[in-house]
Structure formats: C-alpha cells, structure tokens
Design brief:
Blueprint: E1 21-24, H1 48-64, E2 68-71, E3 89-91, E4 94-96, H2 103-106, H3 109-118, E5 122-124, E6 136-139, E7 142-147, H4 153-163, E8 167-171, E9 184-188, E10 200-203, H5 210-219, E11 224-225, H6 228-232, E12 239-240, E13 244-247, H7 252-260, E14 264-267, H8 271-274, E15 285-286
Parallel strand pairs: 1-2, 4-5, 7-8, 10-11, 13-14
Antiparallel strand pairs: 1-15, 3-4, 6-7, 9-10, 12-13
Arginine binds at residues 36-37, 40, 80, 83, 85-86, 105, 134, 179, 181-182, 276-278, 282.
Length: 291
C-alpha cells in the first residue's frame, strides 16, 4: 500500500501576544545638544515636532495592541529622558535604579526613582554604574547583562544580588551598539510550559566579543541572527509582546526573518529619535509588577 503524496508544509509556530505595561516619556524637550554615543551629532538639526509625531505613533500602536502605557513627565534640559529604557530595571515589584555613565544624563535618575516609588515599587538605589533596561534584558528567569560602554561589570554582580537571578554577562565591542538593547531583541521572554522551550531572542553577533558570541550560540540555538545592515539601522532595538514585534521599517531582512518564524512585525519609524542614538526599545521601559 502506498501513502498518498501529501506536500509537507513547514508551518511556523503560533505566537501568543502577552499584555505588557510600559513606561514612556513624551519627547517634548528632545534635541541633540551633546555627544555621548557615535550617533549624536549636535551640529545636525533636530525637529522636535517630528520626534513628537513619531513617538506618538509608537505610543498609539502600543495601545492599539492592548498594552498599558504609563507616562513620566519630561524635564526641561534632559533631552535624553525620552529613552525611558535607561530609567531602571523592574522585576517583581522591585525597581533597581539607574546610575548613568555620563554627567549629561545623571539628573534623570531622580525623577525616574521618584516615579517608581510613587507607583508602588520598592526602589533600590544603585551603587554601581548601570543604565537600566538598556543593558539588562530579562529572558525567562535569566538576566542578560551588557557591558563595555555603559553599565559596568560590577553592576552585573549588583543586579544579581538585587533580584537573586542568574546573570549572564555579555561584552559589547562596537561603539555603535553601546547598549545591550541595540544588539539583542528579546522576542519571547516566556520559558515554555511542559518542557517546551519558547524563550527566544534575535541578536547581532558582531556586536559582541567572541566569548559572548559563544555563550549566546550555546544558550539560544534557535535565535535569529540579524545581518549587519539590519543591525546598523537599529533593527534590534525593538519591542516584542511574544507575537507583535515593533521594528524599524528599514530593517527589511529582519522583518522577513520574523515573518518566517511566525511573528507579526509592526513597522514604526523613529528616524528623528535615532539622531540621539535611540530607537523603539530605548523609548520603552517595561514595568513588571509583583508576581
Ligand atoms: N542619547 C542616549 C544615550 O546615549 C540614547 C539612549 C538609548 N537608549 C537605549 N536604551 N539604548 O544615552
């Protein structure tokens, strides 16, 4: 007896969106008046109203996708406050505060920590230099931690003490990708049920030293490896809810890779905010409540 000739189709896994709670900051005072990363060029004019319109589209998109977005008041003279990802790292109702590498951003720490305290978080004042979710990413129960340009290796030890979780240190080597969230996107942070491994990431291998590349390859064999072209347009600086992945429209290769894996890319252009060296993820801080 011969079996019917049925074409075997490779179907991408079904992705499930989880509701997120984010903190954002309207770029009312956005400009580029100093240089603390290779993208910032104060001589190039910035258009604050365009930055506001682009930011608004991101904000509206989060709401349309069913997420909850809180706002922190922008402070005049702190143009980088729009990049709320650097304002802290929050897990299980605890907010580990930021301690910025450069004086230009130091004054942002106060307003962020006050906001967290006013919203019921236990705030941990940091001793070590760290730039919040810019360099700390939660994947399953593990914290991936970046160093090399901003957050120090000592902050990796500190964040491990604060949250009592495994911390994996990764070394960034390319100054264009100075925060971990410019080189890794967490696509799905949920550790699968019943032995099904779901947690997954996308990353730009060349942004890391060899040892870190080996660690990433061993831990995430199913990761999406992004091309240099897509990395260079901040394609990885994206926000995922497990299904919808908000990315730059310029990251066309990454867009195709996401579709192949069953994710739903949503394209949002933050070109104006890229003049400050930030993108979608930089403008988004995840507020993880108590368990
Ligand atoms: N101008 C800001 C800085 O250099 C951009 C921060 C981008 N934030 C991020 N999470 N990658 O600090």
């Amino acid at each position: 007896m011969s079996l019917p000739n049925v074409a075997v189709e490779h179907t991408a896994p079904v992705r499930i969106a989880q509701r997120r709670t984010y903190l954002m900051c309207r770029p009312e005072h956005f400009t580029v008046s100093y240089t603390i990363n290779p993208w910032m060029e104060p001589a190039n004019p910035t258009d604050t109203s365009l930055a506001l319109r682009q930011w608004q589209t991101l904000y509206d998109t989060y709401l349309e996708l069913g997420h909850e977005v809180h706002l922190i008041d922008p402070v005049e003279g702190l143009p980088d406050m729009v990049y709320t990802a650097n304002g802290g790292f929050l897990i299980d109702g605890t907010a580990y505060g930021p301690k910025f590498r450069y004086q230009e951003r130091a004054a942002e720490a106060g307003p962020f920590m006050e906001w967290f305290a006013a919203h019921g978080y236990d705030v941990v004042e940091p001793v070590e230099v760290n730039e919040g979710e810019g360099d700390f990413l939660l994947v399953g129960d593990t914290i991936l931690a970046g160093t090399g340009f901003r957050s120090t290796g000592d902050s990796h030890r500190e964040v491990a003490e604060v949250f009592g979780r495994e911390v994996v240190s990764l070394q960034l080597v390319d100054p264009r990708f100075y925060h971990l969230d410019t080189a890794i996107a967490v696509l799905d942070p949920v550790e699968g049920d019943g032995g099904v491994e779901r947690a997954n990431i996308a990353y730009l291998p060349h942004a890391f030293d060899e040892r870190s590349q080996e660690i990433l390859a061993a831990r995430y064999p199913d990761a999406i490896l992004v091309s240099d072209d897509d990395g260079a347009v901040f394609g990885l600086n994206s926000a995922s809810d497990g299904r919808n992945v908000i990315i730059s429209p310029r990251a066309t290769g990454f867009e195709a890779q996401l579709r192949e894996r069953g994710y739903h890319p949503v394209l949002i252009d933050l070109s104006e905010l890229l003049l400050g060296g930030g993108g979608i993820k930089c403008c988004t801080l995840e507020l993880r409540g108590r368990r």
